[in-house]
Amino acid sequence: MLAMSDEVGHPRHRWRPLLHASSAAIARGRFAESERHVTEVAQLATLADDPALEVSLVMHEIMRARLQRRLDEEHAALARLETASRDFRLGEVFVAEVHAQCAARDEDVDETRRQLARIRGLVPNLLAEPIHTAMLAEAIALAGTDDERRAYRDAHAGRVDEAIATGPISFTYESTVGRSLGLLDAALGELTGAEQALTRARSLAVERGQTPWAAQTSYELAKVHRARRAPRRSERALRRGPPESPRSSV
Fold first, then answer.
1. What CATH number is attached to the domain comprising 165?
2. For the ranges 43-52, 95-104, 110-119, 130-139, which has the lowest average pLDDT?
3. Is the pTM of this model over 0.70?
4. CA 237 to CA 223: how far, in whole Å?
5. 184 with 149: CB under 8 angstroms?
6. How many domains does the chain have?
7. How would you label 134-150 residue by residue, b for 16+ Cβ within 10 Å and e otherwise?
8. What mean pLDDT is predicted for residues 62-82?
9. Per-residue CA distances from 161 to 127, 169, 200 (Å)
């Protein structure tokens, strides 16, 4: 995609391949490489007359900051999203979803619940859209009702190892469906299923060299072990460092 966009030579056809490349880099913990791609996109924004670029760039920055646990950057980008999506169809729903997603990762139950309340009447319709389902699963696990958790879990059933991509808006990878299922199981108190799902999600992240997701699922797995009153297993999960990246990818 990058090579083809280089041949075409127009900014409008360049920024999406760059965000795809940044997404692949982020998933593997190569944040400096991602930064180079994002910097080029920001430069192209002054040249390309494309209203989608602003929304996609700020969304990409939010998701990247969230995965890196850079909360100040995340919150600053969230504030920019309000303006960037003002002319976006269903912009208010979109913004509430993103806020709920970020608040859930920050483990802010009250804020997650507040953001979910803004879109609660739309939940049945959102379940029909895979991207919305993926975006909201973490928030529902933290602050939803048990009925909502079961509904979201049923919507994911049978897709355990599938990758979750946020589509042509933020251009990011959000681990596997199995991780979402593990979080939902844990919230429902079904700890055996949660442990199995999160262990599988972590194994896939390690196998694929996705160091940030290996770290994130290790943390979530440790919480499940703690809930099962297995403190030693919890400590072992937390001590597991992310796998080293292959030299060719550094």
1. 1.25.40
2. 130-139
3. yes
4. 9
5. yes
6. 1
7. bbbbbbbbbbbeeebbe
8. 90
9. 19, 22, 8
